[in-house]
Amino acid sequence: MTNSTRLDAGELAPGTIYTLLAAAGFAAVSILTSLATATGITLSTVLAWRYLLAAVVLTTYVGSQEYKRIPPFEMMRFVTIGGFGQALLVYLALSSLAYIPAATLAFLFYTYPAWVALVQAVRGAERLDARRVAALALSFLGIGVMVGMPGAGGVDWRGVVLALSAAVVYGAYIPVMRVLQRDHPVAPTSAYSKIGAALAFLVLSVADQSFTWQLSVEAWGIIVALAIVSTVLPSVFFLMGLIRLGPVRTAIVSTVEPFLTALLGVVVLGQRLTLPTLAGGALIIAAVVLLQFRRDRVA
Question: Per-residue pLDDT averaged across 200-220, rounded?
Answer without folding.
Answer: 92
